[in-house]
């Protein structure tokens, strides 16, 4: 299929892109990697009058560490994150997450900003960013604002971004020393969107007890969600099979994933419970320095 006709704009700088967004607002769509937008256009599920291609905004493609915080420019390709030594060393959950995204060809084009702005509840990068307590910076001609993950993801495929705003940067706080990580998911074919999953961070103290936990669920709700009751259950505990199973059970108690032809709500709930338990155990083992 072919997309409906639109006017194409290719700004060469951020100021020009923001001026176009201010002028065309909700009649426009930003084009980043195009790996979600182009299929939507071709299936005619989106019909913007203006497409604003931000691929000329090289200044938005970067990964840098500033005062312990990772800053990821919105135009950073999935593949750059996957190959980043900085991410591998300090934020390995992000590298593990991005490896689950689609196929290498898609990761070469797809961008971190596009994945976040598209806000698919089954996307790996947003769920890892929610586990990592990320913040998102949006720019428009009206100014700049930074939004925490709780306020950023509003619903399936919907974020707090206004039509004239461009997501420019993702900020990821430092991860506590002694933390282990894991992203567990299941999809029927390699590279497909997952039927469910979980991103987990576990921090252990000197005695091996849990002193920090983040559990974010993938495909469990219209947005990535944190399983806060389950996180509390881990605190102060040595992570045994029994403790992980109890936390995983609590994690799915509060959610009701929607069912479709790929899996019923009940199937997805029990799948996510299994994946949360596995991710907690893997994260705890990694926190103790055990190899996979
Ligand atoms: P685009 O497609 O260019 O844009 C997506 C949306 O975000 C559009 O609405 C666009 O206007 C908006 N947007 C983009 N950048 C910005 C910005 N900076 N500010 C404001 N709005 C912006 N993803 C997964 O997570 N897991 C998978 O398993 C997976 N499998 C896939 C399999 C296939 C076959 C394909 C084609 C895609 C798959 N994807 C998957 C999606 C892929 O990761 C996309 O790259 C990603 O969702 C969107 O990134 P993009 O840069 O391509 O954005």
Describe the structure.
The chain has 292 residues and is α+β, with helices and mostly antiparallel strands. It has three domains: 47 residues, Uridine Diphospho-n-acetylenolpyruvylglucosamine Reductase, domain 2 (2-Layer Sandwich), CATH 3.30.43.10; 115 residues, Uridine Diphospho-n-acetylenolpyruvylglucosamine Reductase, domain 3, CATH 3.30.465; 109 residues, Enolase-like, domain 1 (2-Layer Sandwich). The chain contains twelve helices and 14 strands. The strands form four sheets. The protein has a five-stranded antiparallel beta sheet with strand order 4-5-10-6-7. The chain has a four-stranded antiparallel beta sheet with strand order 11-12-13-14, with helices on both faces. A three-stranded parallel beta sheet has the order 1-3-2, with helices on one face. A hairpin with a 5-residue loop joins strand 12 and strand 13. It starts with 6 loop residues before the first strand and ends in a 5-residue tail after the last helix. The mean pLDDT is 96. Bound molecules: flavin-adenine dinucleotide. Flavin-adenine dinucleotide binds next to strand 2, helix 2, helix 7, helix 8 and strand 10. The site of flavin-adenine dinucleotide (FAD) has 28 residues, from strand 2, helix 2, helix 7, helix 8 and strand 10.
């Amino acid at each position: 299929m072919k997309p409906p006709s639109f006017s194409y704009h290719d700004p060469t700088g951020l100021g020009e892109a923001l001026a176009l967004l201010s002028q065309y607002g909700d009649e426009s769509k930003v084009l980043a990697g195009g790996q979600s937008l182009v299929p939507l256009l071709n299936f005619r599920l989106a019909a913007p009058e203006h497409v604003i291609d931000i691929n000329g905004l090289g200044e938005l493609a970067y990964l840098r560490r500033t005062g312990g915080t990772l800053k990821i420019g919105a135009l950073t390709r999935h593949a750059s994150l996957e190959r980043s030594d900085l991410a591998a060393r300090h934020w390995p959950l992000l590298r593990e997450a991005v490896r689950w995204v689609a196929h290498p060809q898609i990761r070469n084009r797809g961008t971190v900003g596009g994945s976040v702005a598209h806000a698919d509840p089954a996307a790996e990068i947003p769920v890892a960013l929610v586990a990592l307590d990320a913040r998102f910076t949006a720019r428009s001609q009206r100014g700049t604002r930074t939004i925490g993950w709780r306020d950023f993801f509003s619903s399936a495929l919907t974020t707090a971004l206004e039509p004239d705003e461009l997501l420019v940067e993702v900020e990821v706080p430092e991860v506590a020393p002694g933390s282990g990580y894991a992203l567990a998911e299941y999809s029927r074919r390699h590279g497909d969107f997952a039927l469910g999953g979980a991103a987990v961070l576990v921090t252990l103290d000197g005695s091996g007890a849990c002193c920090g936990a983040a559990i974010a669920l993938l495909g469990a709700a219209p947005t990535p969600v944190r399983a806060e009751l389950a996180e509390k259950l881990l605190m102060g505990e040595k992570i045994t099979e029994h403790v992980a199973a109890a936390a995983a059970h609590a994690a799915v108690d509060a959610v009701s994933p929607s069912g479709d032809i790929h899996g019923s709500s009940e199937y997805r709930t029990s799948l996510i419970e299994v994946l949360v338990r596995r991710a907690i155990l893997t994260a705890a083992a990694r926190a103790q320095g055990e190899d996979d």
